[in-house]
Amino acid sequence: MKKGLLLFALVLLISSHAFAEGKKDDHAYVGGSIAWQNLMDSELGSNDGLTDAALKASDAEFKFKGLGYGASGFAGYQWTNGFRLEGELSFFKSDIDKVSSTVGDTDLNGYLDMTALMVNALWQFESETDVFAFAGLGAGYGWAKGKYEGGGDGVTGTSSIPLVQPIFGLGYHLTEDVSMALDYKFVMGLKKLDYDELEHEYRAHRLGLGVKYDF
Q1: Arithmetic mean of pLDDT over the chain
Q2: Which of 16, 48, 150, 156 has a CA positioned 20 to 30 A from the CA of residue 64?
């Protein structure tokens, strides 16, 4: 009886240790997340010289309302050393508040959407518990649609830009195959969004909560 209990305890110890280290074999995974984003104030410019000079002279900036929101889905492959490579498709939306400048503010009624396809390279660090951490970098392309109206004038346009995103996160193994994670991404456009002679940067802080299934 004692030998049986000792063997049972040993099996539990070995199993829990293996689980804490994560899956031993290379494997595929899928997942999804919901997230909130804070779009940073963005300096306005133009590809028209006179308009650009006027915007810069007045320190004109886009300002956004509170937190935006979005969702993403991803699928990838993880190796035994913790390296992960994944593709991610996301959609985010934020409301535009106003244009602020030294000559006064203009209230706007509009939004800025961003759909992006990214490739993320991540490194996952397991611990002696069910908690794990990960960090990496993503790169890809984004397609933006903006609409804003103010002072009787309205602008609707689309633009596409290359994007990069540093990624940091903490996760927890709920079961051997299912985990959840909280992640932070700083999404940056490598050039300005450009539509209807109006240009501005795209920079967003994103905080997401996701679930991942390992096959």
Answers
A1: 84
A2: 48
